[in-house]
Design goal:
The chain has 451 residues and is an alpha+beta fold. It has 3 domains: 55-155, 2-Layer Sandwich (Beta-Lactamase); 219-298, Helix Hairpins, CATH 1.10.287; 310-447, 2-Layer Sandwich (Heat Shock Protein 90), CATH 3.30.565.10. Helix content is 49%, strand content 18%. The chain is built from 7 helices and 12 strands. The protein has helices at residues 5-53, 155-206, 219-269, 273-298, 312-324, 348-365, 417-428; strands spanning 81-87, 92-95, 116-122, 128-140, 143-154, 310-311, 333-337, 343-344, 369-376, 381-387, 431-436, 442-447. The chain has a 5-stranded antiparallel β-sheet. Strands 7-9-10-12-11 form a 5-stranded mixed β-sheet, with helices on one face. A hairpin with a 4-residue loop joins strand 1 (81-87) and strand 2. Helix 6 (348-365) runs antiparallel to helix 7. The radius of gyration is 48 Å and the shape is rod-shaped.
Length: 451
């Protein structure tokens, strides 16, 4: 199925133009042929009239040969213009010199005197002729007699004239087809421009750069834009309500979790270490989930929260400075190669949340070094974070961003950091790929959409 409306319209236009101009060309050629035939018919009728006016009979009633006609083609053998006169009463047939040794095979039909009959018959030299025939009643010495007069012209001239006319108008028809195709393309481009503008406005909303469709659209799209605005407003209200409930729930759980942690300390002081360890682990798990929901609630789902685009170099430099002072990061060699102009369509806070979790994970497992590099590709800015740690088992790479999953319990953590990365990436349309390096370590590659 052809998915492009533009291509569909162009295809229909090209088919319509081809059919219309083909019919027009056929009509013009037919009209030219018809007019030419009418002119030839007029000439042939004139010749018949002149031949009829010159008919004479001698005293014995024999038909005399008519006077010469002005057109020289009647006197040249196979000259293209012929006449033939038949007097059936006396079995007399006269022919123009141009017929030479040929006689026109007139059909043996009968018709009323004065009526004109037209034929296309085989002519001399193997070429067809157009024949006009009429029976006239002439006054002869012995009484009135019916004389059959036929005048013919070479049909090849008519056929050649029609072919030449068709070849003559063909370049103009092709030029007109090209002009109409270009006009159709321009008309289509101009007509679909509001749809492109609508798509741009929708993309701005998706990228959280606008809150609604505020452009002026044609009447055919005004209803659609109005309905989309209503849908966007309803969705915005639903998202705000959900965010508020999630934040309220997360904050409401913080106090009970603090109490639970204090109770674990109290039990530990009383010697109930086993129960205290269990309560502390439970509180830590629940606090990790609460922090995850708070992080999700802070994501910028609307233009009101999204302040600007993120400069990857500023975000990475700030995170690296912080991690250098952390217990895991101070022992590592940090290498950062991020150009100054690496700006991506992500809220800076969300960018820090996402890259911070990736860099913290790299610092946690790296043996000696962590590198960060960003390059511009055809799809957008691509940022790679690499460490020289143990990496991840190949069969577990697809599960690395699963919520709450810890592939190795030797290091502290909740297993939610990379899940937050996945949530933010999904929100902004960022492509995230985790794979193992050839030598050792894990590589995280993020491809950001273009601005």
């Amino acid at each position: 199925m052809m998915r492009s409306i533009r291509l569909r319209f162009l295809l229909v236009s090209l088919i319509g133009i081809t059919i219309a101009l083909s019919l027009a060309a056929w009509f013009f050629v037919a009209l030219f042929t018809r007019n030419l035939q009418a002119r030839i018919d007029g000439e042939l009728s004139g010749y018949i009239g002149r031949l009829a006016a010159t008919l004479r009979f001698d005293d014995s009633g024999a038909l005399e040969r008519p006077q010469q006609l002005a057109d020289n083609r009647f006197y040249q053998p196979y000259g293209g213009l012929y006449w033939q006169i038949e007097d059936e009463a006396q079995s007399v047939r006269m022919r123009s010199p141009s017929l030479f040794d040929y006689a026109l095979p007139l059909p043996a039909d009968t018709h009323e005197p004065g009526t004109v009959h037209r034929y296309r018959l085989p002519g001399p030299d193997g070429r067809d002729v157009m024949v006009q025939e009429r029976i006239i009643v002439a006054a002869a010495p012995g009484g009135k007699r019916e004389i059959r007069i036929a005048v013919a012209v070479d049909a090849t001239d008519l056929d050649n004239a029609s072919s030449r006319f068709a070849r003559t108008i063909l370049p103009y028809i092709l030029a007109l087809a090209l002009l109409l195709s270009l006009m159709s393309a321009l008309q289509l481009s101009f007509g679909l421009r509001p749809l492109s503008r609508l798509a741009d406005d929708v993309r701005k909303i998706r990228e959280r750069r606008a809150t609604h469709l505020d452009g002026e659209y044609p009447s055919e799209l005004s209803v659609l834009s109005s309905q989309l605005n209503q849908l966007i407003e309803a969705q915005e209200k639903t998202v705000k309500s959900a965010r508020a409930r999630a934040a309220d729930l997360a904050h409401g759980l913080k106090t009970p979790l603090t109490v639970l942690a204090n109770d674990a300390l109290t039990l530990r002081d009383k010697g109930e270490t086993e129960i205290a360890d269990e309560l502390e682990a439970l509180a830590a798990t629940m606090r990790a989930h609460v922090d995850h929901e708070l992080a999700r609630a802070r994501m910028a789902p609307s233009p009101e929260q999204r302040r600007s685009d993120a400069n990857l170099r500023d975000v990475v430099d700030g995170l690296v400075r912080t991690l250098r002072r952390s217990p895991d990061g101070e022992r590592l060699d940090w290498r950062s190669e991020v150009p100054e102009g690496a700006v991506v369509p992500v809220d800076p806070q969300d960018a820090r949340e996402m890259l911070g979790n990736i860099l913290e994970n790299a610092a946690k497992w790296a043996s000696a070094a962590v590198s960060v590099r960003a390059i511009m590709t055809r799809d957008g800015w691509r940022l790679a974070v690499e460490d020289d740690g143990p990496g991840v088992s190949p069969d577990k790479l697809g599960e690395i961003t699963a919520r709450g999953l810890r592939l190795d319990h030797r290091k502290p953590g909740s297993g939610l950091g990379l899940a937050i990365v996945e949530d933010i990436a999904t929100l902004y349309g960022i492509d995230v790929l985790f794979d193992n390096r050839e030598k050792a370590g894990l590589r995280a590659v993020l491809t950001f959409p273009r601005l």
